[in-house]
Amino acid sequence: MSHSPQINPSDQEIDLSQLSKKIGDKIQSFIDWLFDGILFIRRNIIIIGVLFIIGAGLGFYLDKKTKVYDHQVIVTPNFGSTDYLYSKIFLINSKIKEGDTMFLKQIGIKNPKKFTGIEVEPIVDVYRFINNSAQNFEMLKLMAEDGDLKKIVEENLTSKNYTFHNISFTTKDITSEQNTLSPILNYLNESEFYEKIQKESLNNIHLKIKENDSIIAQINGVMNQFSKAVGSNQKSDKLVYYNENTQLNEVLKTKEALINEQGAKRLELVTSDRIIKESSFTLNVENNKMSNGKKKIILPFLFIGLFTLFGMARRFYRRQLAKRSLA
């Protein structure tokens, strides 16, 4: 036969009274701490005010003197040079981290000490990627079956195949196209290997345009002869009927496809004059991230916080010293 332990009501009252006493002590400690803080501010209001003014003034000065600017340029790597672009940008950034100002000067960058970083990332454009090739669409569809489509379109293997890429870099002062952007682009376009590929690619484009023009001219000749034949038949009151399955319809479709290809080839010539072709850029956008441009707000509170920590440490030291003297 089991016996359950009996709880003495007086023990419960003792536990509750001890708990309420502890809670009351905690609340009182918080009130004392809060009041001590008010007294500390009251005793040191002049020092706190002076520290705030000094911090704000110094912050204004530093914000005005050490501004950071962001710059961006959108580029298209031609002739399969995407990996080449990324490797070159990685090299420049590594030289910046190493402080190799000689390398930066050699590639033409003015004031290399103010050049603080550079990176490149793809501009995700799935629709253009799909429209460029039916194979791209099939590849994405196949890869999406085994994973998250959003992760796939942003992963390194896929993203490097996008048309446009964004090069962003930062400087500690205002810069210009001649001082930084042009030297970077000129450096990226210095490659004997890709210059040879560019030369042959341009020759192929010109040849293709010439051949297409010749084929279109032949089609126009055939169409002119057909028009004359139709005109003579109409004069002789003979009717000629055609449907979508006739060879004439196929000829018209071929001409339309060639005209579209000619337009695409001429646009390709415009964008193929450089290995890494820039399409647009923005310079000297003030960077207000993190502490940039916010020192006038950060420094006053930093100085006051350090002064407060010093006061707390001094008070703790005095209390400990008083305890030991009493002992």
TrEMBL record:
Keyword field contains Transmembrane helix: yes
Superkingdom to which the source organism belongs: Bacteria
Parts of the chain that traverse the membrane: 45-62, 297-317
UniProt keywords, alphabetically: Membrane, Transmembrane, Transmembrane helix
The protein's name: Chain length determinant protein
